[in-house]
Amino acid sequence: MQGPALLILTALADTPRHGYGILQEVTALSEGRVRMRTGTLYGALDRLQGQGLIQVEREEVVDGRARRFYRLTPSGRSALAEEIGHLHTVVTEAHRRLGAGPAGGLGASTA
């Protein structure tokens, strides 16, 4: 799963959100390291919707502008859970390898 998809699915895991809300949540989740552009967001939303991982929950008009709220589908929840398991395996292995290295553990200085 690519980074934008993972971040979007994670942003939608707890509650439906509209586009701008997703952008804000992605920034918060990434601690400011990722500032997704709207073109990237809406392209990813179209792909995720086409894959059946998200769907439009509702549309509202606020100040004359349409807001489309997205939510995870059951397939989206399963895909996110599967990716979490994969990432956990990779992170566990990275920790193991760092701990087994010549520096003798995490946080050890190489200087």
From TrEMBL:
<dbReference type="InterPro" id="IPR005149">
    <property type="entry name" value="Tscrpt_reg_PadR_N"/>
</dbReference>
<dbReference type="InterPro" id="IPR036388">
    <property type="entry name" value="WH-like_DNA-bd_sf"/>
</dbReference>
<feature type="domain" description="Transcription regulator PadR N-terminal">
    <location>
        <begin position="8"/>
        <end position="82"/>
    </location>
</feature>
<dbReference type="Pfam" id="PF03551">
    <property type="entry name" value="PadR"/>
</dbReference>
<dbReference type="InterPro" id="IPR036390">
    <property type="entry name" value="WH_DNA-bd_sf"/>
</dbReference>
<dbReference type="InterPro" id="IPR052509">
    <property type="entry name" value="Metal_resp_DNA-bind_regulator"/>
</dbReference>
<protein>
    <submittedName>
        <fullName>PadR family transcriptional regulator</fullName>
    </submittedName>
</protein>
